[in-house]
Specification:
By secondary structure, the protein is mostly beta strands. It is built from 7 helices and 26 strands. The strands form 4 sheets. Strands 2, 3, 5, 6, 7, 8, 9, 10, 11, 12, 13 and 14 form a 12-stranded mixed beta sheet that branches. The chain has a 5-stranded antiparallel beta sheet with strand order 1-18-17-16-15, with no helix packed on it.
């Protein structure tokens, strides 16, 4: 088991990550916002959440923790060399995200509520990759910083590679990024292989990064990111330090909920929503208290994409080819945003892999295709009330 190295004390900086883009910068053309006749049928109302309480319902959600033993970590450290640290990664940028005016995929942004901040990934730098989950330093620490920096982590995957863009978000007018490939060590730490899986869920909590994969929920220690020979466009590597195996299928959606005590990890898959409590033990920073779900629900929403929970409200997105639906669901019922002359519920982007709430700024971050965007949580709630 890795030893806790202490939470960074953050120095607040004058520049807050709250720059609001002008309405014209995010305005969609009539053609882009038009919902085709083939999409004009709303998804069925999922209704209220149904609590899951029986052993048969909860047992598939149990997780088994498997951490790399200390001797294996020592061997891995010896092979990979001295850690670089997140700050060094950010300072060694591969590229810069573009203004939304230059983005050909701007039409993928939500219609209602509209994004207040948006950026575009370069097509050449992401060729052959699919965008996935997003998490931020707002998840990592309650002051929203990692060291001196505000950071967004953006997951991407292809046929034989999975990597994460470490985005320097200190200046909201200019976001630069550096690619880091994810790796999985052997049990003895003598070798490692690339993580090859879609990355639909990702949460950065304290010094750990939890990432969904086909065969489990992998755990990464951000202190262990290292410079490595360039491969697949990445000049840094981050090896896993453990994995959580599931009694049933691994979760596909993840997010952090700071409104609970203790903070909790929210998960989703196949019409089920559940959460795990994070450990309060400083020697287990960023790890779960147990592998047992503290609460679980069945949702009638199908085709789940992103999931977010805050103050007993659950926010869910439904995937679609073009336009999807954003729901807010509780044990009392469900509401969806509406837009257009016909009041359709198909107002959200159709390819959202995750939702991440940056509590300090009040923004929800996500991405669709090659577009990274954010909007205030209160704007989502206002559109749903």
């Amino acid at each position: 088991m890795t030893q806790h190295r202490g939470r960074h004390r953050r120095r607040r900086r004058g520049r807050a990550l709250r720059g609001v883009l002008a309405g014209t910068a995010l305005a969609l053309t009539a053609a882009a916002t038009m919902i085709s006749a083939s999409q004009a049928t709303d998804d069925a109302d999922p209704g209220a959440l149904k609590p899951l309480t029986s052993h048969a319902e909860l047992n598939p959600l149990r997780l088994r923790e498997e951490l790399l033993p200390e001797p294996a970590l020592d061997r891995l450290d010896a092979r990979l060399g001295r850690p670089a640290g997140v700050g060094a990664v950010l300072a060694d940028a591969d590229g810069t995200l573009r203004d939304p005016d230059d983005c050909t995929e701007r039409a993928a942004l939500p219609v209602a509520p509209a994004a207040t901040r948006a950026y575009c990934w370069d097509a050449a730098g992401t060729r052959g990759l699919r965008s996935g989950a997003v998490t931020t330093s707002g998840d990592a620490d309650d002051d929203g910083h990692w060291g001196e920096h505000r950071v967004v982590l953006s997951a991407w995957s292809g046929d034989r590679r999975s990597r994460v863009a470490f985005v320097d978000a200190d200046d909201p007018g200019r976001l630069s990024y550096t690619w880091v490939r994810l790796a999985v060590p052997t049990d003895d730490g003598r070798a490692h292989r690339p993580l090859r899986s879609a990355l639909s869920g990702m949460v950065w909590y304290q010094d750990k990064l939890l990432v969904t994969a086909r065969d489990g929920l992998y755990v990464y220690d951000l202190h262990r990111v290292r410079r490595a020979p360039a491969a697949d466009g990445s000049r840094y590597v981050l090896p896993a330090v453990g994995v959580y195996r599931s009694a049933g299928p691994a979760p596909t959606g993840l997010s952090l909920d700071r409104s609970t005590s203790p903070d909790s990890l929210v998960a989703s898959r196949d019409g089920r929503l559940w959460r795990y409590a994070f450990s309060a033990d400083p020697d287990r920073a960023g790890l779960l208290a147990t592998g047992t779900a503290t609460e679980a629900y069945a949702t009638g929403a199908e085709g789940l994409g992103g999931v977010l929970s805050y103050r007993s409200r659950w926010y869910l997105t439904q995937r679609a080819e073009e336009r999807g639906t954003l729901w807010r669901q509780t044990t009392d019922g469900a509401e969806a945003t509406r837009c257009g002359a016909d009041g359709t519920r198909l107002c959200w982007t159709g390819r959202t892999a995750s939702l991440s709430y940056w509590q300090q700024t009040g923004e929800v971050w996500s991405q669709s295709g090659r577009t990274l965007f954010a909007l205030p949580l209160h704007a989502i709630d206002r559109a749903l009330d």
